Structure prediction request, 269 residues.
Amino acid sequence: MFKKAATLIALSCVLALSLVMGGCGSSSENAEPAKQASSEMAMVNSGKLTVASDFQFPPFEYMDGSNKTGFSVELVEALAQEMGLEANWLDPIKFDTLVPLVKQGGKIDAAVASITINEERKQEVDFSDPYLDSNQGLAVMKDSNFASQEDLNKAGVKVAVQSGSTGEAWATENLPNAEILVLDDNTAGFAALQSGKADAVALDLPVMQWMVKESYPDAKVIAEIPTGEQYGIAVSKENPELTKKLNEALKTLKDNGKYDEIHKKYFGN
Ligand code: ARG
Prediction:
């Protein structure tokens, strides 16, 4: 309770200060708590950065046996370390429930799931600075006759997408004649493709390329769609201090080479 009140005081100070240059004066009783609150992050579990993902999105966040791993997992470990916190990953949670969970508060500090920063989501949560650029892609089976986006935009063609993803939004908008199959995750999407339940999948290109190469060699990428997406870490709007600290830590990791090291490990460059 106190923390919340102090945060509010801190916020109004910042506002007042920026508006009238002065306001919540240094000599008032408010000065101390306000200062403390503004440099304090309210964590769900103290000393920990409690994070959630779906772990169905290689090479960003996925399960290697019973291990949670991937580019974003390692990035978050490094960010947490930089912030003096311990990364605490919850068990996999469905992708389309992550942003609502962050918004709801109390369970996780942040969602890390290659979440594209967009206006719609920014109404619900705050985002860290972008940490990776991405695009959409379309994949079909190698032995199919589909060769382009236009080939898929036809009645009777089924395109699998992940529920709540930008791939779903893109396909719905750009393949209006096709039937969009909305599935829980992209593993289900590729399974539908292989079994003939879907004719194509639409999802983030780097993940598509990885999945085709590592697990579905009988599928192929037929289109790269330059949507210009950027991934960010989703944080509650109630915790701007955490977003700020994440951004500082991200900058440090970019400056000191740690970000590049992790990138190289997963992408080879
Ligand atoms: N970047 C896309 C989006 O924000 C897809 C992200 C899916 N991530 C995942 N971990 N399944 O909608």
User: Anything to note?
Assistant: The chain has eleven helices and twelve strands. Residues 103 and 124 are 6 Å apart (CA to CA).
